[in-house]
Amino acid sequence: MDLVMANYEVAPELLADRVPPGTALDFDDGKLFVSLVGFMFLDTRVLGIPVPFHVNFEEVNLRFYVKRETAEETRRGVCFVKEIVPRFAIAKVADLVYGEPYECWKMSHTRTEKEVSYSWRKGDCANRFKVEIDRDLGIPARGSHGEFIIEHYWGYTRRGPNRTDEYKVEHPEWELFSVKNVELDVDFGRTYGEKFAFLSDQKPASVLLAKGSEIAVYKGAKMV
């Protein structure tokens, strides 16, 4: 489950109306990011139950970063602008269980020893994200940009004007790899909304590949 991530610096105004109640935007060294993330779900189970013919599939999402302060800790989490998968049943179940903004598109991927790519299409809107794998950077250092991007263990979903659901994600620490010869051909405006169209012409602040692992996503609970 390798994750390819293109990370774009954006202004807070872009995301202000998307921040779930009870959370705040999370900045990395004073900078705010959205990330385009492509990866494979493998041996997927929803509430512990595999969905026949829907256990291995691609996902590409656009996400941003938030945090929640509790009495015990700062919970660093992610919110999703949109999550794209190739299976209607998965999109429907995920929407019902987690309230996440899933859509079903035609998708494909490649994975070799040297490269990883994801493609997603709906009608005449076709997108592609490809990287060549470079050096093994290991587990990112505490406080580094890489650690900020990949080490989030909470998800937050806005379920209405006054309701936020919180769910926990568990996985081991992930190794990072540098990448080269990045190909990004994404129509952000048609895929994620006109407010995000400018990203099609913006160079990512960073592009990373993480060597993923098994993850556990727990059912959401109402926070506020």
Q: Low-confidence spans: pLDDT under 50, at least 5 residues?
A: 43-55
Shape call: globular
Helix-strand string = EEEEEEEHEEEEHEEEHEEE
CATH class identity:
Mainly Beta
CATH homologous superfamily grouping: Acetoacetate decarboxylase-like
Domains, number: 1
CATH architecture: Beta Barrel
Radius of gyration: 17 Å
The CATH topology label is Acetoacetate decarboxylase-like
Number of strands: 17
Number of helices: 3
Q: Termini distance?
A: 33 Å
Q: Compute the average pLDDT.
A: 86
Query: Structural class from helices and strands?
Result: mainly beta
- The percent range for strand residues is over 45%
Sheet with the most strands, sense and barrel status: 15 strands, mixed
What is the percent of helical residues? under 10%
Q: What are the SSEs and their pairings?
A:
Layout: E1 2-10, E2 24-25, E3 32-41, E4 45-46, E5 49-50, E6 57-69, E7 74-85, H1 88-98, E8 102-104, E9 106-111, E10 115-122, E11 125-138, H2 145-150, E12 154-160, E13 163-170, E14 175-185, H3 188-192, E15 206-211, E16 216-217, E17 221-222
